[in-house]
Each structure stands twice: as C-alpha cells, then as structure tokens.
Amino acid sequence: MKFGQWIGLLVLVASIYILWQIRRLILLLFTAIVLATALNQLVRQLQKLRIIRSWAIFLSIFILLTFFFGFFWLIVPAFIEQFQQLLALIPRGVSRVQEWITYLENRFGGEYPDLPDINNFIRQIQPLVMQFFTSTLDLLTTSITAALEFLLVLVLTLMLLANPQPYRNLFVRFFPSFYRQRVDEILSRCATGLESWTVGALIEMMFIATLSGISLWILQVPLVLAHAILAGLLNFIPNIGPTLSVVFPITVALLDAPWKAIAVLIVYIIIQNIESYWLTPTVMAKQVALLPAVTLSSQILFATLFGALGLLMAIPLTVIAKIWLEEVLFKDVLDKWRHA
C-alpha cells in the first residue's frame, strides 16, 4: 500500500472509532429523524386544512406532548395505587396460607412447615431494602439522563421539522459528487419506508389497544383504558412488548379475582396470535416487508449495542439498513458485477 492509502485507512479507522464512541448521540439523532418523519405526516395533513407550516408544527408537537404526559398521568398513578394494594394483600395472603396449613395439620395429622412470621421476614429483608434505596438513587440518575435525552430529541425534531433540507444537503455532501444524486434518491426511499412503517405500526397499535380494551371491559377488569393504551404502545416493540403488556392487567385482575388473571392471560394470548398470524402479515407486508427472523435478530443486535433505546428503535433502524443494503450493495454493486 502507498503512503496515501495508509493515511486513508488510518482516517477510516479513526472515523469508525469516533462514531462508535458517539453511537448514543447518533442513535438519539436517528430517533429525532424517525419522530420528525412521523410528525411530518401529521403536519402535512394539517397543512391541507390551510394551516401554515409553522403553526402545523406547533400543533403536532403539542399533540405529541399532550399524549405523552397524558399517558404517564393515566398509567403511573394507577400502577402505584394497584401496587400498594398488592403490597397490603401480601400479609393477608401469608396469614391465609398459614390457616390452611393449620387446618391440614388438624384434619389429617402430620406436620407441615410453618411459614415465616411476617415481622421476622421484614427484619430479614432490611438489607435488601437498603440495596433497593441505592438502586432507587441510580434509577433517579438514569431518569434525569433520560429526561435530558428526551429534551434533546425534542429539540432536534423541531429543527428537522422546521427546515429539513439543509441537513439533508449536508448529509449528501459527505458522498462523492458522482454519487450524490443517487444518495438523494435513496434518502427519499428511506423517508417513504419510514412513513410506511409508521402507518403500519399505528394501525397495529390501534388494533391491539381496541381489542384489548373491549376484552378487558367484558371481563370487568379495572383500569381498562390504561391497560388498553399500554398494550397498544408496547406493541411498538415486536415480540417483547406484547409479553410486557400482559403483566400489569394480570396483576390488577389478580387483586380483583384470581380467575380473571387466568382469563386475561388467555385473552392476551389470543389477541397476540391474531396480531402475529393475521394482522402483521396483512398490514406490514403492504408497508414494510421484514422477515420475522430478521426482526428478532435486529432487536437482539441493537439492544446489545445500544440498550433499551436500541431495542425501541430496532425496527426503524432495520428498515433503513434494509433500504441501504438493497439500493447500494445489491443494485449498485452486486447486480452490476459482471464476470470478467
């Protein structure tokens, strides 16, 4: 290799290293791009109502923040209340089990193990409580960091919505002049792919939320609206989200009646099978074609590399990666490769 080639290789390695070190910031920027792309659809719909773009952007952000804070107002207090009720029922449940053990001893004879006294149990878990408070402090620090990252994403989203073209032109200029028009075409297809995925994801989320809400209303499980919204939002994360969404309603149903918890589990399994075997193939096949194995593998990969945010953004990242691979590697390189 010549000296210039060695310099180019060193620059490439240094660039990759720098990108890896700031990968969290790049992921936040990508999150802002996805959010701006989704909100831009709402902005365009508002512009059709003869609302100027600046006001349409303001209304879109206002709707997003209203939904975000409304969701936490609806979910968090209800969860805390139900969790407190669950904690209050633990001593009662321990006493009930101890009564059953005493009854079995008197009825059939023999000795059965006694449950630990609740006061002794509390004393034994005091070290765990101290550890819990330490973990709570770490959680508070993480929450502050998450809030700052959310604010950064919101500001970047506003900038991208207000005037996206300069940022697009800047990205295109990183490529050689002969390839810039092609990059611009690929970016247009990426925007279309993200918009299609957003529409498909919203359809699935609304379907799951509606079906979950109706089912829980029939079963008369408390906090139906909160459960339905949570199920719809967590469906944003394929494979893992639906599993997490069943925990809260099962806990609440268990406080009301044990048989309801079993019924809720069965209902959610049925709903997720409908979503997996009918809704997703029907909706996403028309929007974004991703193989199930690719979806699961991408979630594992991006969650390993970027943590929880990587898991959340795994599907849009996969959509963009798929488009770039198809356009650059397959169409521009491999399809034009001729045997010498």
Automatic annotation (TrEMBL):
The keyword Transmembrane applies. Its main location: membrane. One of its GO terms (cellular component) is membrane. InterPro entries: AI-2E-like (IPR002549). It is a multi-pass membrane protein. The chain crosses the membrane at residues 25-43, 55-80, 139-161, 206-230, 236-255, 262-280, 300-321. It is found in: Membrane. It comes from the Bacteria. Keywords: Membrane, Transmembrane, Transmembrane helix. It holds the Pfam family AI-2E_transport. GO terms for biological process: transmembrane transport. Belongs to the autoinducer-2 exporter (AI-2E) (TC 2.A.86) family. This is Permease. The lineage of its organism: Bacteria, Bacillati, Cyanobacteriota, Cyanophyceae, Nostocales.
